[in-house]
Amino acid sequence: MTEPSTGRWVYFDTEITNSSGRISYSIPKEKRLGVGVYPIKMVVRGDQSYAMSYLTVLPRGMECVVFSIDGSFAASVSIMGSDPKVRAGAVDVVRHWQDLGYLIIYITGRPDMQKQRVVSWLSQHNFPQGMIFFSDGLVHDPLRQKTIFLRNLMQECHIKICAAYGSMKDISVYNVLGLSSSQIYIVGRPAKKYQNQCQFISEGYAAHLATLEFGHHSRSKKNNSWMILRKGSFGLHTQPEFLRKRNHLRRTMSVQQPDPPSSNPKPERAQSQPESDKDHDRHLPPMSW
């Protein structure tokens, strides 16, 4: 959909998937898209079932804040439970960075087959909109995959990471990327081994948010991310009907559009997206809105 506001689909090409039901496709130069977010619909010719996703085209030098989903947000060990609790104040911290105009990037070492569950959890807790990146299938070293992916974002797509959140496991990832200790925020009790490599969030997100607000009170807001991703949360209730169709294609789970929550979400504060991203025709690993 090259012009999402019209709701009109534009045919691009026909491709054959591999044995895993995946395809890799590069948009021809003559069909190059401008900066923005574009719905993508992949239809099986035989039974007309389809998979939905989004392509996000970002400008060079986009500034972002990275959040490791499991390390930053979940108060329980795993978000694979029925409804693991979110760390108090986590949503407000993410929103603070969004309000300043930074692009929010959520990253996880989980395989893309868990996309629907993870995105539904973020939506239920009203996390601000951002781009979500998963591992491409099951991997033995998820930290290495995170490192490779984020490095590609920085080197090939010229994304600038201004701050990064996670657990102590993520410190090595952020260090390899060249982030300074003042840019790395780690949730949990301080560890002497890492005290010079990061900033520990040991008193909770509420105290951390107060510190951020004090330090950012004179910082001007950036408008570049708002021009691309509409400000708001992950809830899909306000999207047009053509973005909420429910016919999913299991073979391409990594690019499925998540179901809207079946019941009213319980946001942490009341007031309180894509298979690939590209900058200059660069395509990235599995992601979602």
Automatic annotation (TrEMBL):
<comment type="similarity">
    <text>Belongs to the PtdIns transfer protein family. PI transfer class IIA subfamily.</text>
</comment>
<comment type="function">
    <text>Catalyzes the transfer of phosphatidylinositol and phosphatidylcholine between membranes (in vitro). Binds calcium ions.</text>
</comment>
<dbReference type="InterPro" id="IPR031315">
    <property type="entry name" value="LNS2/PITP"/>
</dbReference>
<dbReference type="Pfam" id="PF24695">
    <property type="entry name" value="PITM1-3"/>
</dbReference>
<keyword id="KW-0472">Membrane</keyword>
<keyword id="KW-0479">Metal-binding</keyword>
<dbReference type="InterPro" id="IPR023214">
    <property type="entry name" value="HAD_sf"/>
</dbReference>
<dbReference type="GO" id="GO:0035091">
    <property type="term" value="F:phosphatidylinositol binding"/>
</dbReference>
<dbReference type="GO" id="GO:0008525">
    <property type="term" value="F:phosphatidylcholine transporter activity"/>
</dbReference>
<dbReference type="GO" id="GO:0008526">
    <property type="term" value="F:phosphatidylinositol transfer activity"/>
</dbReference>
<feature type="region of interest" description="Disordered">
    <location>
        <begin position="251"/>
        <end position="289"/>
    </location>
</feature>
<dbReference type="GO" id="GO:0031210">
    <property type="term" value="F:phosphatidylcholine binding"/>
</dbReference>
<dbReference type="Pfam" id="PF24694">
    <property type="entry name" value="LNS2_PITM1-3"/>
</dbReference>
<keyword id="KW-0597">Phosphoprotein</keyword>
<dbReference type="GO" id="GO:0046872">
    <property type="term" value="F:metal ion binding"/>
</dbReference>
<feature type="domain" description="LNS2/PITP">
    <location>
        <begin position="65"/>
        <end position="196"/>
    </location>
</feature>
<protein>
    <recommendedName>
        <fullName>Membrane-associated phosphatidylinositol transfer protein 3</fullName>
    </recommendedName>
</protein>
<dbReference type="InterPro" id="IPR001666">
    <property type="entry name" value="PI_transfer"/>
</dbReference>
<dbReference type="InterPro" id="IPR036412">
    <property type="entry name" value="HAD-like_sf"/>
</dbReference>
<keyword id="KW-0106">Calcium</keyword>
<keyword id="KW-0446">Lipid-binding</keyword>
<dbReference type="GO" id="GO:0005737">
    <property type="term" value="C:cytoplasm"/>
</dbReference>
<dbReference type="GO" id="GO:0012505">
    <property type="term" value="C:endomembrane system"/>
</dbReference>
<comment type="subunit">
    <text>Interacts with PTK2B via its C-terminus.</text>
</comment>
<feature type="compositionally biased region" description="Basic and acidic residues">
    <location>
        <begin position="275"/>
        <end position="289"/>
    </location>
</feature>
